[in-house]
Design brief:
20% helix, 60s Ribosomal Protein L30, Chain: A, alpha+beta, disordered N terminus, disordered C terminus, globular, four-stranded mixed beta sheet
Length: 181
């Protein structure tokens, strides 16, 4: 059987939905994070933003963040809008729920080249670099990633298994027109 998106495709091309246990659904908005001990299926949409999925291999639970910018500027309130804040807060939340940094692994998604503020500054690339650097600082191994490119992604993270399903989003005519201008 081959996986196609979120459906299983059998050899006779009959499509069947995957059978799921009692799993709570949660949509993760930008500038937020989520971690839970019970099974949850967390969905989010990423462009130049990053989603860092953490999973504690010993305690068998996970969490995810969705940040938009790499660094907090020191003004305003520190929020998970910024990667340096979002990653540290996600780790803190996982530890508060009984996890341990030494038992965590990470998967990184997003960081598409969709927003360029000034020549030579690719926000997606900066977001990816920050995630890699902070996870290395915390000694959390990155076991999977799908980053960069020029297309957005939809990801679905299973907090009880650490599995992440991802699919690329199609570019719209409006985004192509905007790119040409």
């Amino acid at each position: 059987m081959e996986m196609s998106g979120f459906l299983q495709r059998k050899k006779n091309f009959e499509l069947t939905f995957m059978v799921c246990q009692d799993i709570s659904e949660y949509f993760l908005f930008p500038s937020t994070l989520f971690a839970a001990r019970g099974p949850h299926r967390v969905q989010t949409i990423l462009g130049s933003c990053i989603g860092v999925c953490l999973f504690d291999c010993r305690m068998k639970f996970g969490g995810i963040n969705h940040y938009m910018m790499p660094w907090w500027n020191g003004r305003d309130l520190p929020s998970p809008k910024y990667g340096d804040v979002a990653i540290d807060r996600l780790i803190e939340k996982m530890v508060a729920l009984g996890g341990s940094e030494r038992d965590m692994v990470a998967k990184i998604f997003g960081g598409a080249n969709q927003l360029t503020f000034r020549k030579g500054f690719d926000i997606g690339e900066q977001n990816v670099s920050l995630a890699r650097d902070l996870l290395k600082k915390h000694e959390i191994k990155i076991v999977g990633e799908n980053v960069g490119g020029d297309r957005g992604r939809k990801i679905v993270f299973h907090t009880d298994t650490g599995q992440v399903f991802m699919k690329f989003l199609e570019r719209t005519d409006a985004s192509k027109d905007h790119e040409a201008n």
